[in-house]
Each structure stands twice: as C-alpha cells, then as structure tokens.
Amino acid sequence: MIDKESLLNDKEFLKSFKDGLELQSFFRELQARAVSQMLEGEMDGYLGYEKHERSGQGNSRNGHTSKKVRGDQGDLEIQVPRDRDGTFNPIIVPKRKNLNARFYE
Fold first, then answer.
1. Contacts of 24 (CB under 8 A, 6+ apart)
2. With the CA atoms of 75, 6, 41 and 28 taken in that order, what torsion angle do they form, in degrees rounded to the nearest 10?
3. pLDDT tens digits, residue range 55-93?
4. Cα separations (Å) of 90 from 11, 53, 84?
5. Which of 43, 87, 90, 104 gives 81 a disulfide partner, CB atoms 3.0 to 4.6 angstroms apart?
6. What does the pLDDT average to over 33-48?
7. What's the rounded Cα separation, in Å, for the pair 34 and 46?
8. Pairwise CA distance, residues 3 & 68, whole Å
9. What is the pLDDT of residue 105?
10. What values do phi and psi take at 66, rounded to 5?
11. Which is more confidently placed, 102 or 98?
12. Taken in order 68, 71, 74, 79, is the CA torsion positive or negative?
C-alpha cells in the first residue's frame, strides 16, 4: 500500500503536473476511480460475496453501467456495478442521483 504522506512529499510526482488543469484532471480521475471502487465494495456487501467467488444464491453480478455524476471535482464518469435482479441501489450514488452529499462529510 502506498503511504499517502510519502506521495504528497514526493517532489518528482508533484513536478509531473505541468499546470493546474493537469492537476485538476488527475484529481477528477482519482475521485472517479475511488468512487467506482467503493461501489464495487457496496456490491460485495449487497451480494454477500466478493467478485470472482462462487455463490449459491440466484442473484449475481451483471457487468457495469457508465454514469456521469457531478462531484466536487466537476463531472465524473464512473462505473456502477449491476446485479442480475436489478435490485442493487448504491448508497454512495443512488440511482438517478449525483454523488451523495454525505460522501463528503
């Protein structure tokens, strides 16, 4: 695991951004990936098993849907996992909503 403090003190990493737009783009991509991974975790909890594990229940993963949401970094393209029954409603980004305000508290 990467130590966050080390990353923030890595001058070479910080120098890799040529301007504010490049840095903002990085933050947007970081936020989109983090939210997508959190949604995967929600799906694991919802189904009761992790990705690539076998399950004896009827409901299972059924790919992803791309969704544009408005976050504090601007518009983000995230990947929302789907289940076969269509009953999964994420907490972080509920269906037909943008990023939940509680996500930032």
1. 73, 74
2. 10
3. 777 888 999 999 888 877 788 889 999 999 999 999 988
4. 37, 21, 15
5. 43
6. 93
7. 18
8. 30
9. 44
10. -80, 140
11. 98
12. negative
